[in-house]
Design goal:
Elements lengths: L1 H21 L3 H13 L3 H8 L2 H6 L2 H14 L3 E7 L14 E11 L2 E16 L2 E7 L14 E7 L6 E2 L5 E13 L9 H8 L4 H8 L10 E7 L3 H8 L4 E10 L7 H4 L1 E4 L2 H6 L10 E5 H5 L1 H5 L3 E7 L8 E6 L7 E2 L4 H10 L5 E6 L6 E7 L4 H6 L3 H9 L12 E2 L6 H11 L14 E2 L2 E2 L11 H6 L3 H11 L1 H10 L26 H8 L7 E2 H7 L2 H4 L3 E2 L12 E3 L5 H16 L13 E10 L8 E10 L6 E6 L8 H12 L1
Parallel strand pairs: 6-14
Antiparallel strand pairs: 1-2, 2-3, 3-4, 5-12, 6-7, 7-8, 7-9, 10-11, 12-13, 15-16, 15-25, 17-20, 18-19, 21-22, 23-24, 24-25
Helix pairs in contact: 2-3, 3-5, 13-24, 16-18, 16-19, 16-23, 18-20
Keywords: Membrane, Signal
Subcellular location: Membrane
Protein name: Penicillin-binding transpeptidase domain-containing protein
Length: 660
């Protein structure tokens, strides 16, 4: 019997000990609760940890849904919840609440939030479970938040930075335009809808849809379309229709329109794809973003950073709102370019809408003064939201105004000859005064335009008469390796160090010269050689700087005269080439550039683009020039399809207009 009772007692002790080992402390419960909190598992927090009083005060939807929505709406991430550990000898009485200091940290759209509160756990029985449970209220979401309060978020839009030219003239500015719309009670002639729709590049159905919106009332202005401030023709015709009105609105403006269209680019509404790519950068639906040109290149600097404020809106009358977090607005930077907008406008106009491109640099500093693509488009149309029909019209234009030509590379033709000569002069294989006997129109597959050039042909005559055979023979004297290495010293085969993406110039598709025929063709800018127009202008700098080629800069604050290449040509050899290029204009075939009062010097070039089997192909005409008396503007220009317009001299005349 004694053994029996001893066994019963032992079992009782084991049961008691087992019960004690399963009983969690309030600290254990709090640690588990905080673990779910940090993971945002609100349903688990509600079901397993909240005390009866909390559940009676707040149903599950109030607890779970509200916190999940706030996490999404306020961009809450990086949540870190911790608690201050109690003393090691702390004892917990079931009849007494257990209090713990709890620290909460998080990041929001408006910046970091950090606070500390005391969390209380109560010991109670819920169903068959006896344990410690958390006493909760909304202030554990944000301090001073109560059940009936609303959380608000204000977004203060950053002002987009402007783009200015070197003299402070606006290239992309925060200007204004007009919202054209209808006041329904005053628009009494429905027949006028068709007229208005045509003016605004819309359909009558689109106008009716806007007039049929839920909020529309007879006396309210209903906006239909935005137009640029300078579109006075549409404005005047629209407001002449009874019931049609115009309201001034802020909008991005591009004062130089087509002249700088490809350079400035434009902004537009962010697409769903862009929004997904930039979801961590603070962009939201409806934001404007740089879509092309400098607007896209400098998006990060121009955009700025919106201000944000998260605050508690108290329903009680007279109670001040409580700010939870605030991030001040940072407006975008104003970017001043090296570009001279008036010079660019003049260069663009001189090209008369012909397809082509032009680049101008200051050869003493490397500053880019103009970067033209012709024909072009008006970026104001795009930033306002171009119609589908208008976009199709631009796409279908055979002159391809949407194609950015200054970013491309083209065969430079004879404009490469001064570079070829410079490489030969420095290699010692070309003697400028040494004449070659060249007879006839062709030699080993190389043809010349002016077989009438009197022998012997020295460097000066070769430049004046643009003699392909002379330069082919000089390249053969140099050899493939010397000539190719010389071209690489001028930047062929490497990225152009420029703020915008430009296609690199190439010696050939493979980057090398592999035959005598290819060597000959490359010497006068044909074969597989391609050159970007800005790089072409930059390559002429060493002839004016005695051997230095500068990095082409675009932002005025960038350091001037950053050396890209140096030691390219001696002062003596540079002077020889300068004299020859002046004679090209005075005695040669760039007579359209031989204008009074401006001593232009330079080199013409014609690149033939002939498909297999064609007797005669298309020709791109080039001219690179500068004013000998004031060599602070170096202009390179290319015009497509000049074969019936007088060739490269046609381009020389256009370039001369810029210097006039």
């Amino acid at each position: 019997m004694k053994k029996y009772w001893a066994a019963i007692l032992l079992i009782g002790v084991f049961v008691l000990l087992a019960g004690c080992s399963q009983q969690a402390t309030p600290e254990d419960r709090l640690a588990a609760y905080i673990s779910y909190w940090n993971k945002g598992e609100y349903a688990e927090m509600y079901d397993g940890f909240l005390n009866d009083g909390t559940k009676q005060a707040y149903d599950k939807a109030q607890f779970v849904d509200r916190q999940q929505k706030l996490k999404e709406d306020l961009g809450i991430d990086g949540l870190e919840v911790a608690y201050t550990k109690p003393a090691e000898d702390a004892k917990w009485e079931e009849e007494q609440p257990a209090d713990f200091p709890v620290q909460v940290k998080m990041n929001t759209l408006a910046g970091p939030v950090e606070f500390e509160k005391t969390m209380t756990l109560l010991h109670e029985t819920q169903g068959e479970t006896e344990d410690w449970f958390v006493e909760w209220d909304p202030s554990f979401i944000f301090p001073q938040l109560e059940a009936e309060d609303e959380i608000r978020i204000d977004r203060i839009k950053a002002v987009r930075g402007e783009i200015l030219d070197r003299t402070g003239k606006g290239i992309a500015i925060n200007g204004g335009g007009y919202n054209i719309g209808i006041v329904p009670e005053k628009f009494t002639d429905d027949k006028k809808k068709a007229e208005l729709a045509k003016l605004l590049n819309q359909t009558v159905e689109q106008i009716d849809a806007k007039l049929g919106q839920d909020w529309v009332k007879p006396e309210l202005f209903v906006p239909l379309a935005k137009i640029a401030r300078n579109n006075t023709e549409v404005l005047d015709k629209a407001i002449a229709i009874p019931g049609v009105a115009a309201q001034q609105v802020a909008m991005r403006e591009y004062p130089y329109e087509e002249a700088l269209g490809h350079l400035s680019g434009y902004i537009g509404s962010i697409t769903a794809e862009q929004l997904e790519e930039r979801k961590d950068e603070g962009y939201t639906t409806g934001d404007q973003i740089g879509r092309q040109g400098l607007e896209r290149t400098f998006e990060e600097q121009l955009r700025g950073k919106d201000g944000m404020r998260i605050w508690i809106d108290k329903p009680a009358e007279g109670v001040e709102p409580i700010t939870i977090a605030e991030q001040p607005v940072t407006d975008g930077e104003t970017i001043t370019l090296t570009i001279d907008a008036e010079l660019q406008k003049k260069a663009f106009a001189s090209m008369k809408g012909e397809p082509g491109t032009a680049a101008a640099v200051n050869p003493k500093t490397g500053e880019t003064l103009a970067l033209v693509s012709s024909p072009s488009f008006d970026p104001n149309e795009f930033t306002l939201g171009i119609s589908g029909d208008r976009f199709k019209e631009l796409e279908a234009d055979p002159l391809t105004p949407l194609f950015n030509r200054f970013a491309q590379a083209y065969a430079p033709g004879s404009t490469l000859k001064p570079v070829t000569a410079a490489i030969g002069l420095e290699a010692g294989t070309l003697k400028p005064a040494e004449g070659l006997e060249i007879n006839g129109k062709s030699w080993q597959g190389v043809t010349r335009l002016h077989p009438e050039a009197p022998n012997p042909i020295d460097l000066n005559k070769a430049l004046v008469f643009s003699d392909n055979i002379y330069f082919a023979q000089q390249a053969l004297k140099m050899g493939n390796e010397t000539f190719a290495e010389g071209l690489k010293k001028y930047g062929f085969g490497e990225d152009i160090p420029f703020a915008m993406n430009l296609e690199a110039s190439q010696i050939s598709n493979e980057g090398s010269i592999d035959s005598e025929g290819q060597l000959a063709a490359t010497s006068f800018g044909q074969g597989q050689m391609l050159t970007n127009i800005l790089h072409l202008a930059t390559m002429y700098e060493p002839f004016l700087t005695d051997g230095i080629m500068y990095k082409p800069t675009l932002v005025l604050d960038d350091k001037d005269a950053q050396v890209w290449k140096e030691g390219l040509i001696s002062a003596e050899n540079a002077a020889t080439l300068r004299k020859g290029m002046r004679n090209v204009v005075v005695d040669g075939y760039a007579q359209s550039a031989n204008i009074p009062g401006v001593a232009l010097a330079g080199k013409t070039g014609t690149a033939e683009l002939k498909a297999a089997g064609e007797e005669r192909g298309k020709e791109n005409g080039f001219f690179v020039t500068y004013n000998e008396a004031d060599p602070t503007l170096l202009l390179a220009m290319m015009v497509e399809n000049v074969e019936d317009n007088g060739g490269s001299d046609y381009v020389a005349g256009m370039a001369a207009e810029v210097f006039k």
